[in-house]
Design a protein that fits this description.
Structural class: alpha/beta
Strand order of the largest sheet: 1-14-13-17-15-16
Number of helices: 15
Strand content: 15-25%
Radius of gyration: 21 Å
Distance between the termini: 48 Å
Helix content: 25-40%
CATH class of the domain at 123-280: Alpha Beta
Number of strands: 17
Length: 442
C-alpha cells in the first residue's frame, strides 16, 4: 500500500500537460531585473553601482544577515539601474537592472558539466559553499539552504528527505529535472549526507511519476544510503509536515519544524543546485520553470535565467491566448496572481500558469451551510470556516488562539467549499494581521 499523510487532503485534476516535454533553454534576455529579496529573511545588500560592468556569477547583492542569501548576476553586462519594480508579490521591491552584453544577447552555450561523483569538501566547507553561492529552497519557500544545514548541537538528525512530490497541479519542473538529472541529484544527496554526517536519505515521489521512480531506483540500486518512497497521489503532500508524516510516520510539532523530529527536508531542485555549487562552483543564477495552461499554444519546461521578464517566457511559448484572465506565479492552488508580464523570474518561480476566463471565474459567494468539507480536507486539522469568520470580523487574538498561524495556505478549503467562500483569502489576511500584532507586542 502506498504511503501518504493521514489527515485531510484532496485530489484536484493534475493537468500535467508538460510532463513529457524535456527541459529547453530560454534565450538569454537583453535585460534582466534581479530583485534583492528572493528568499525568506533579510533582503540582500546591493554591492554594485550604476554603470558598473558585471560578469556571470558575480555577487551583486550580499547576504545581510544569518537568514539571508547572496544574489549573483545571471548574465555578463552593465548595471543600468538600481530601481524599484513590482515583483511577484505585487509590491515594489528594490531591484538591480542589468543590460546584457552583446556576446550573451542572442545565444547561450550551455556548459555541459560531466558527472562528478567524488566529494572533496569537508562538511563545514560544503555548508559555506552553499551559503556563498546563494542556494535557497526551490520548492517555493526560498528558505536559505545553509541555514537549514546549520544544525544546533542539541538537535540530532538521522534522516534527509528529498521532496520530489510536486503535487501542485500543472507544474512539472521538478518531474522533468528528476528524469533528466537523476545522477547529479543522487550525488547532491550524497553531498548533504556528508554535510550532515548521517547515512540515510529518502526520496519521496508521488506514484503519478513512475518514470522518475524507476530512474532513481536504477541510479541508486547499489547505494544503501538512499531509498525511494513511492507515495499515493494526494495534495498537499509536498508540504514538509505532510511529507515527513507520510514517509516516516513522525508528527512534526504544531509550531515546530522537521528538525524537531530528526529530519531535514530539501526539494529536488535545491539538491541539484547544491550539486552544481559544490562540484562546479556554480551559483544559483538559473532554474527550471514550467510555462503552461490549457489554452497555451506550446506549453513547456525551460531553464531560465533569474531576472528574465515573464513576458519573454510567454512569447517563447506562443504568446497569451485569447480570453486569458489571469497569470499565476506558481500553481493554481498555492500560486499568486501577478500584475503584469514585466514581473521577473526569481529563485522561487517554479511555474507560470496562464488561466482562461472560464477557469478563473469564481462562483457567487453564498452563506456557509456548515457542511464541514473544509474541516474534512484540511491537512492541518483546522476549522477554516471559523478562521475566515474570525479574520473577517477582526478577531485576530481569537484567530491566533485557534491556530491560524499553522495554516500552510494550501487552498484545499477554498477548493472544496460548495458556497464558494473565499476561505484562504481571509485566512491569509488573518495571518498577516496576527503577525503584525505579534510584532507590535515585541
Amino acid at each position: 500500500m502506498l504511503k501518504t499523510f493521514p489527515i485531510g487532503g484532496i485530489h484536484p485534476p493534475e493537468n500535467k500537460i508538460t510532463s513529457s516535454k524535456g527541459i529547453k533553454r530560454m534565450p538569454v534576455p537583453k535585460v534582466v531585473y534581479v530583485p534583492i529579496s528572493q528568499h525568506i529573511g533579510v533582503p540582500s545588500e546591493i554591492i554594485v553601482d550604476k554603470k558598473e560592468k558585471v560578469e556571470i556569477g558575480q555577487v551583486i547583492a550580499k547576504s545581510s544577515g544569518f537568514v539571508s542569501s547572496n544574489i549573483h548576476s545571471p548574465v555578463a553586462g552593465v548595471v543600468t539601474k538600481l530601481d524599484k519594480i513590482i515583483d511577484s508579490s505585487g509590491y515594489k521591491k528594490q531591484c538591480i537592472v542589468i543590460r546584457t552584453d552583446v556576446k550573451n544577447e542572442t545565444n547561450f552555450e550551455e556548459i555541459d558539466f560531466p558527472l562528478k561523483t567524488k566529494i572533496e569538501l569537508e562538511p563545514k566547507e560544503i555548508i559555506q559553499r552553499i551559503s556563498d553561492f546563494g542556494i535557497v529552497g526551490l520548492g517555493g519557500a526560498t528558505f536559505p539552504s545553509h541555514v537549514k544545514l546549520n544544525v544546533r548541537e542539541d538537535k540530532k538528525i538521522d534522516c534527509l528527505i528529498i521532496n520530489g512530490v510536486e503535487c501542485e497541479p500543472y507544474l512539472t519542473a521538478d518531474h522533468r529535472l528528476m528524469i533528466e538529472k537523476a545522477e547529479e541529484i543522487a550525488v547532491g544527496i550524497e553531498i548533504l549526507l556528508v554535510a550532515l554526517n548521517i547515512n540515510k536519505a529518502i526520496i519521496g515521489i508521488e506514484n503519478n511519476k513512475k518514470d522518475a521512480i524507476d530512474i532513481f531506483k536504477k541510479v541508486t540500486q547499489n547505494n544503501t544510503k538512499i531509498q525511494i518512497a513511492a507515495l499515493k497521489v494526494k495534495y498537499p503532500q509536498g508540504g514538509e509536515k505532510q511529507l515527513v508524516r507520510a514517509i516516516l510516520n513522525r508528527e512534526v510539532p504544531k509550531n515546530g519544524l522537521p528538525l524537531d523530529v530528526g529530519v531535514i527536508v530539501h526539494n529536488v531542485g535545491t539538491i541539484f543546485a547544491i550539486y552544481e555549487a559544490v562540484q562546479y562552483n556554480k551559483p544559483l543564477i538559473e532554474r527550471v520553470v514550467t510555462v503552461t495552461g490549457k489554452k497555451m499554444e506550446n506549453p513547456d519546461n525551460y531553464w531560465v535565467k533569474i531576472g528574465t521578464p515573464i513576458k519573454d517566457l510567454i512569447e517563447e511559448v506562443g504568446g497569451l491566448p485569447e480570453g486569458t484572465r489571469k497569470l499565476i506565479n506558481g500553481g493554481p492552488m498555492m500560486g499568486k496572481a501577478i500584475k503584469n508580464t514585466d514581473v521577473p523570474v526569481t529563485k522561487g518561480t517554479s511555474g507560470i500558469l496562464v488561466i482562461s476566463e472560464e477557469e478563473a471565474s469564481r462562483g457567487k459567494t453564498e452563506n456557509c451551510i456548515r457542511c464541514g468539507e473544509c474541516v474534512f480536507v484540511c491537512p492541518m486539522g483546522l476549522e477554516a470556516h471559523l478562521l475566515m469568520n474570525l479574520a473577517e470580523k477582526g478577531m485576530f487574538e481569537k484567530a491566533s488562539n485557534e491556530d491560524i498561524m499553522t495554516c500552510i495556505e494550501c487552498g484545499s478549503c477554498s477548493y472544496v467549499c460548495p458556497s464558494h467562500r473565499p476561505l484562504l483569502d481571509y485566512i491569509r489576511f488573518g495571518k498577516n494581521s496576527v503577525k503584525k500584532l505579534e510584532t507590535a507586542k515585541k
